Amino acid sequence: MNETLQTIAQRKSCRSYRSEMIKDEELQAILKAGIQAPSAMNRQLCEIYAITNPSYIDELTEAIKKVSEERGEKKPDTYHFSYHAPILLIVSGPEYDSRRVEDGSCMLENIFLAATSLNIGSCWINQLRDTQDVDEVRNILNKMGIPHNHQVVGCASIGYVNQETPTKDKNENRIHIVK
Ligand SMILES: Cc1cc2nc3c(=O)[nH]c(=O)nc-3n(C[C@H](O)[C@H](O)[C@H](O)COP(=O)(O)O)c2cc1C
């Protein structure tokens, strides 16, 4: 197997991070891999916001927890929506862009693979996408400079791995070769 295929095979979601910040060159490499993704008609409308200020991430956690509980989803006291990772990458795109989910998802997968190749843990974090239009969450997005007309496609938590998660088997019956 070549290095790229090995990286793809090794990628797994990390849910326990060390608090230290990853190196700037590692973050830059991951962000560049993100924007290297394909985009519909090469419009390149989705953007990545790398949130490195822990107080923004903690504010988001509190707001998301409150909104989720108002919706009847009880969260534990220890709840932290991005598992205390030092960096949250928010991928968003303009709401008028009908291909932002596809474009943003390609960016996120590139981010996960680049992180894996650098021995950095990562995980798709969904809760912000589901709560972004509630005022108290949107106010925090505004403060972080995410444009008013952007919709969050998904997020990636990024950081050095504290505790390894078990690798999940992938169901190969989903592959079909049609001759
Ligand atoms: C669209 C999408 C949303 C996800 N949302 C979350 C999430 O909010 N929190 C989380 O811990 N994992 C989330 N995941 C990660 C999945 O749980 C994970 O990919 C799956 O369990 C398979 O494990 P693996 O990534 O280690 O192969 C999400 C993955 C995808 C593709």
UniProtKB/TrEMBL annotation:
Keyword Nuclease applies: no
Q: Which residues form the Nitroreductase domain?
A: 8-160
InterPro entries found in the cross-reference section: Nitroreductase, Nitroreductase-like
| A GO MF term | oxidoreductase activity
Essential cofactor(s): FMN
Give the domain of life: Bacteria
Q: Which Pfam families match?
A: Nitroreductase (PF00881)
| Key words, A-Z | Flavoprotein, FMN, Oxidoreductase
Sequence similarity:
Belongs to the nitroreductase family.
Name by which UniProt lists this protein: Nitroreductase domain-containing protein
User: Organism source for this protein?
Assistant: Massilimicrobiota timonensis
